[in-house]
Amino acid sequence: MKLKKLLAFLLSAALLASLLAGCASTQTQAEDNTDTQAETAAGGETEQADPDENYDTGDASLDDPLNQDDIGENELLVISFGTSYNDNRRLTIGAIEKAMQEAFPDYSVRRGFTSQIIIDHVKDRDSEVIDNVGEALDRAVDNGVKNLVVQPTHLMNGLEYNDLVNELAEYSDSFEKVVIGEPLLTSDADFQAVAEAIVAATAEDDDSETAICFMGHGTEADSNSVYARMQQVLTDGGHANYFVGTVEASPTLEDVLSLVQAGDYKKVVLRPLMIVAGDHANNDMAGDEEGTWKAAFQEAGYDVITIVEGLGQLEAIQDLLVQHAQAAAAKLG
C-alpha cells in the first residue's frame, strides 16, 4: 500500500512538473512572438544576422554612430530600428540625423537603435558600436541632459513605437523636460506629403505603360492599415499606376501582382516603402531567387527595374521627420 501511494505521488509530481514546463515554454514562445511583432511594427526591417554573408554592404567607418558624450543640456535622440547595410545606413538614417543637426543647432543629436540583433551584428562584423534605446537614454542621464527630444524614424504608430513610449516613460524623472515626436505617417498631411515625395522620386518612370510598385514591410498590428491608406491617397491623387504592398502582411505580393495584371502595363518599377533599404529591399524585393517581387513580375512577363533606395534618402522625408521633431520640441515651452 505504501509503495502504491509513493508511486502515485511521484506520478503526480512528474505531471505537475511537465505542466509547469509547458506553461514556461508557452510563455517564452509568446514573448518571442511579441518581440517579432514589435520589430515588424517599425515598418522598416527585420534583419537577421548572417554569419556567412558574402556580400559587401559598404564601409562602416564612413558612418557616424553618434554615441559621443559631452552632450550638454539639450539633446535630440533619433531612434531607428536600424540596418546592418553600412552604406544604406549612412544614406538613410545618417542623412535624417544630419538634417536634424542642421535644424537643431542648439541640440546635440544622438542615435539609438531598437534592434539588438542589428546592433550586435554591426559590432561583431565592423566593430562599430551603436547604442540601443536604454544605453542612449542612460548616456543622456550620465551627461546631465535636461531637455530631451526623442524623434523616431518609424513609419507608423505601431507596437514598436508604443514600446519606445513606454521605455521613455521609465526615464520621465531623469530629465527636466522630455517629449517624443510622431512617426512618419501620422496625420492626413503626413500621408499626403509622403505620397507627393514618392511620386516626385519616381517621376522619370511615371508613364501609362509603367506600374510603380512600393514594397512595405507589413505588421500583424492594426497599424498595418497605413499601407491601404497610402494606396488610397495615391489613387485619389490620380496616380492609378502606383501600387502598395507588403512583405509580411496585406496587401501581399499576389494582391499587387493581380492589380498590375488588370492593367495594360509593360514595365514594372519596384521600390521599398521603408526608411532603409536593407535586407528586405535587397533580397525580398530585388533578389533574383524564386519568390522575390522581382522574380514574380519577371515571370509574369514584365520588364522589371528595381531601385534599392530607402525613403530616408529622400529630402522630403527627412524634412517631414524634422517637422515632427520641431513640433515635439515646441512642447518643451
Give structural notes.
It is a single chain. With 333 residues, the chain is an alpha/beta fold. Helices cover 46% and strands 14% of the residues. Helix 8 (225-236) links the parallel strand 5 and strand 6. Helix 1 crosses helix 6 (159-169) and helix 3 crosses helix 12 (315-329). The protein is globular and about 60 Å long.
Descriptive keywords:
globular; 12 helices; four-stranded parallel beta sheet; single chain; alpha/beta; 333 residues
Fraction of residues in helix:
40-55%
Number of strands: 8
Strand-pairing-aware structural class: alpha/beta
Termini separation (Å)? Answer: 80 Å
Show unreliable segments: 1-41
Shape: globular
Number of helices: 12
Question: Would you list the SSEs in sequence order as H and E?
Answer: HEHHEHHEHEHEHEHEHHEH
The biggest beta sheet is recorded as: 4 strands, parallel
Gyration radius from CA atoms, angstroms: 23 Å
The neighbouring-strand order within the major sheet is 2-1-3-4
Report the portion of residues in β strands: 5-15%
Average predicted local confidence, pLDDT: 88
Short précis:
By secondary structure, the chain is of the alpha/beta class.
Note the topology.
Elements: H1 2-40, E1 74-80, H2 86-91, H3 93-103, E2 108-113, H4 116-126, H5 133-142, E3 147-152, H6 159-169, E4 177-180, H7 188-201, E5 210-216, H8 225-236, E6 242-246, H9 253-261, E7 267-272, H10 279-285, H11 293-299, E8 303-306, H12 315-329
Parallel strand pairs: 1-2, 1-3, 3-4, 5-6, 5-7, 7-8
